[in-house]
Sequence to fold (372 residues):
Amino acid sequence: MNQAAYQDLSRVLSTHLKQHPKAQPIDCIKLCYQRAFGAAHFCGTPKQALDALTHECAALSGDENEPLLTEIGGGAVRVSLRAALAKQIPLAFFAQFFCLCAAHAPKNEAWFSEALDALEPLCAQGALPFEPQNMRTVCEAYRTKGCPPISHSEEYRAAYAPHYRVLAGHAARLFQFALAIAQKLEDSPEGTRIVAALDGFAGAGKSTAAAFLSELFGGAPVAAMDDFFLPADLRTPERFAQPGGNVHYERFAEEVSPLLHSTKAFSYRRFDCSRMDYGAPREIASFPLVIVEGSYALHPFLRAQYDLTAFFDIEPDEQQHRILQRSGEAMLRRFVAEWIPMERAYEAAFRVKRHADFVLCTDEGAAALDTE
Fold:
């Protein structure tokens, strides 16, 4: 475990123990397990998840003072059932999101092993309030059992009566945005369509998020801003000098905008950069929700047409690391020289983040509770 990861683990555990002073060493292990693996072992099918939620919540009362989300590191959170009841979050939505998030969550065995190794040193340094030898004994006994899923300690359960679900992985950050979409759909009159837009910097996870939301909401169609790259005749120095000029927003306004809120199916032309010509059209099915995804989606020429918006933020170092892993060194150089400066200039010129309903920080380890 590198120093940054070690310090982050120390921060998360120290914060949790200050909030839960009755926690025991086994509760620290449980938190690390949930951070590494999410809750796939606890999920089952959406129906099973809903049945379990319904049964558990029947014995609970809503608590407006309890935070909805509690960070456990690596972008993972615990979602309080009492807070969810107080906010009247539909259990069917919660169960569906929980199961889909569990299916998408990474399983980080290497990190978990390193986290177990780090617990004793954290105790020795005073970051955790346990005797180092006691922590070592608990960790060794746990490893001897094969590192299974575990329950909270009796002390923890007696003091805090925990009732929550764990969301981990990239999808955890989408919980509140997805909930807002679900509530919009619930409140909208029959025969109307909701439009959600996802803008943000390259490498910040917009396409992955759009695919997750499409699956979550039963196959909602996605209109991609990548289909609106500039044709050759518009690729001029004057056009590229415009903030947000690197997208054919005028064509989007002509071919897509007038039809977005209609529930009828439609199609639009897709521009293929590899051929510098228009390719096969993209079909947008008749559906209560359509997702617009891609850089420049919240261009001032377009943003008034959306019902909900999110901006996906990312720090430059993490952005370049992801682009390198995804596309290789040659494409990274182009991104750094051309596209990233254009995106940053567009966001700065139009203050896009300020106009978004949600700003989602997608840096490695950023917590879902920092998304509004």
The two ends are 30 Å apart (CA to CA). Residues 329-350 form the longest helix (22 residues). Strands lie at 69-73, 76-80, 164-167, 194-200, 222-224, 266-272, 277-284, 289-293, 308-313, 358-361. The chain has two domains: 3-168, 173-370.
